[in-house]
Amino acid sequence: MNIYVGNLSYQVTEDDLREAFAAYGDISNVNIIRDRDTGQSKGFGFVEMSDNGQAEEAIQKLNESNLKGRNMKVNEARPREEKPKRNFRPRH
């Protein structure tokens, strides 16, 4: 299951998230979303857990829990919505 983790402190690392979720089961992937230009965290990320039961427990226990000074928002990730394509018009 892919889990959305929001409201993260900018100081939270992928290792911090891995440690928090590892108490509930095996983690297959952790990814904090970063700004393409600056590399700064955008304050959210995703944790993938292979066992759905463990993932559900992690969501219940970790939602609204404090990690580095902020209460995380934790829920099942929704599929990414396709953004409408913009028409490119060069400026003159």
UniProtKB/TrEMBL annotation:
Q: Name one GO molecular function term.
A: RNA binding
- Where is the sequence biased in composition, kind Basic and acidic residues? 73-85
Q: Per its UniProt record, what CDD domains does this chain match?
A: RRM2_NsCP33_like
Name of one Pfam family that matches: RRM_1
Recorded superkingdom: Bacteria
**Where is the region Disordered?**
62-92
Q: Where does the RRM domain lie?
A: 1-79
Q: Which UniProt keywords apply?
A: RNA-binding
Signal sequence residues: none
- Sorted alphabetically, which InterPro entries does this protein's record hold? Nucleotide-bd_a/b_plait_sf, RBD_domain_sf, RRM2_NsCP33-like, RRM_dom, SLIRP/GR-RBP-like
Protein name (Swiss-Prot/TrEMBL): RNA-binding protein (RRM domain)
Please tell me the species this chain comes from.
Hahella chejuensis (strain KCTC 2396)
